[in-house]
Amino acid sequence: MQSALILGASSGIAQAFGRLLAERGVTLYLVARDPRKLEAVSADLSARGACLAGTEVLDLNLHAEHAAMLERAWAALGPVDLVLVAHGMLGDQAACEADPALAMELMRTNYAATGVLLLHLATRLEAQGRGQLAVLSSVAGERGRRSNYIYGSSKAGLSALLSGLRARLAPAGVQVVTVLPGPVRTAMLAGRPLPPLTVEPELVARQLLRGLERGAHTLWLPPKWRAIMAVIRALPEAIFMKLKF
Amino acid sequence: MSESLLSWGRWPRRPQRAIALDWLPDHLPTLGPSKLLPRGQGRSYGDSCLNSRGLLLTTGALDRVIHFDRETGVLRAEAGLTFDDLLRLCLPAGWFPPVTPGTRFLSLGGAVANDVHGKNHHGAGTIGHHVRALELLRSDGSRQLLTPADTSGLFRATIGGLGLTGLITWVELQLVPTRGPWFESHTVRFSTLAECFEIGPELQARHGYTAAWIDSLAPAGQSGRGLYICGDPSDSSEPAAWREPRLRIPLDCPEWLLNPLSLKLFNTLYYRQPLKQGRVHAWPFLYPLDVLADWNRIYGHRGFQQWQCVVPSADAPALCAELLSRIRAHRQGSFLALLKTFGSMDPAGLLSFARPGVTLALDFPMLGERTARMLQELNALVREAGGALYPAKDAQMSAEDFRSGYPRVEEFEGFRDPLLESDFWRRVRGGGEA
Ligand SMILES: Cc1cc2nc3c(=O)[nH]c(=O)nc-3n(C[C@H](O)[C@H](O)[C@H](O)COP(=O)(O)OP(=O)(O)OC[C@H]3O[C@@H](n4cnc5c(N)ncnc54)[C@H](O)[C@@H]3O)c2cc1C
Fold it and tell me: pTM of this prediction?
């Protein structure tokens, strides 16, 4: 891998992943919403050995900007070996339930805007005729749970979109990877009690890189989530609906 | 309670609450009357990294490098960067930290706040001697860029300032050039404490890194026997074909594991080991304990206490002998007793521990009152000799011990941030334990 485009570059997983690429001297193009965070992350990655082809401040919810941003990224990087889509938000479910309008931002960020971005990316990668597209979805998208079904549904939509895109892009030689992390100790969880089985972003990043090298299409991070979610999916609805978690 | 927020000695055990800092903040969080304490990697043994009555500000995610000049070896990074991470970055580029303690799993901020020393103190001083600049965030909303040229006194108060002068957001260090990760090591066996003091000066003059391990459980006639471990960075630029074994103590060991007999056995075997001479990797040379992750759990649930003092050189031979004999009388030997002679340079900070003299460090399983009584006895000897105890290792020194070892504490009070406090500070300043 020689070049990578990271969207949502200041997310905890993206930072840890970016450092692994930096150690390998990969050329990066970074996009994030907050200029100060982007600056801190890009300084860190370049000090750690990454070659920065460019950085760009952009709120990816502004979907009208996607095409121009990708144009600039491709111009800076040349062919793009890997695209990592890592932006998203967890939201506050109780607040969304009290004021459904708040749910809109969450659904838009995690599903609609990301989906539109992926459609732009699909066209670019298809034309390029190779490359990997890794997208952070979530184990929460596997079944809507009482405690975070709004977030979960946005990720469910994203996962469904990815499985279709995978089929579409495979003939062009482009590999679409659905990444399904469990809880990861990053800023996304800040201020909340850490859920059980929370892991460090460094671990997730290492497993992600290994999975990409192996050519996986779905990555449960860490892998035990695959078995856990198989059980959770298999629970009869009559029982599942009584669970509070 | 979160295990990860104990101190390294795992005693005292008090519940801690924390706020994780993910990005450099613009100001310190203010949460009503709660006092705050910055926290690095929790590698301090006692209670200087605990704040039971308030909140910890954890800095683990503040680990971004801000600038690294591979030509000059100047590195500026957020204060949560660990030495382990720093080494991974600077070693391949031919640079090494100027000073490193016996673990590489500590943060830059923690290193500065305790003004840590290493085996090369006699030549290199403490980490504070190599800080080119740092930024401090205070509760009055100010953000101060401090350098050694600072005339306000705040820089010197922050070096060794125990996290109480503000949140250190970043640190800029001058690294030293190195050819590779290798050390040429040279170990000398000595059979009495007197011999240790005799051969010390010459070994220090010849080697950049020195420390003496002492068998604190030796039979009475051989008291003070031990090994002088010396070394220097190697000229070899051979690539690192060395992999650190990864071992981990997965749970609290049963408390009978470390008993007088097993400790004695360990010490005897250690003393009699074949002497290693020649090229060793920096990791086992500088960080012998880091091979065993979570080694502090060897002591079991009760935890343990480190005890480290520094005493004036002139009295050191007699005093160290006396300390060791008291420890033997209490039947509380330790498997790590280390002795080192500090260099003669002025301390870098107002409350720096390292100062001209001889330092002795030991660890003891926490046996409640028994341990407390012995430590009080040792503390009294140190106090009478005009020495000091190391806050980074401490959970029991008295207010009097502290005042006598750190005579500039009143001056320091003038620089302390009123929002910041630790269990240690409340204890030694008479604000109650937790
Ligand atoms: C195996 C081992 C060997 C050791 N060997 C040595 C040695 O040879 N020499 C030596 O000097 N020490 C040694 N130590 C002690 C260790 O170096 C110190 O305790 C060091 O301060 C630990 O750093 P930390 O990041 O874990 O900080 P913590 O223990 O979490 O905190 C230490 C202090 O730093 C303050 N602090 C942390 N981050 C900040 C920040 N960003 N801003 C302001 N204040 C901050 C805290 O408030 C606290 O007062 C050793 C420890 C271990 C476990």
Answer: 0.96
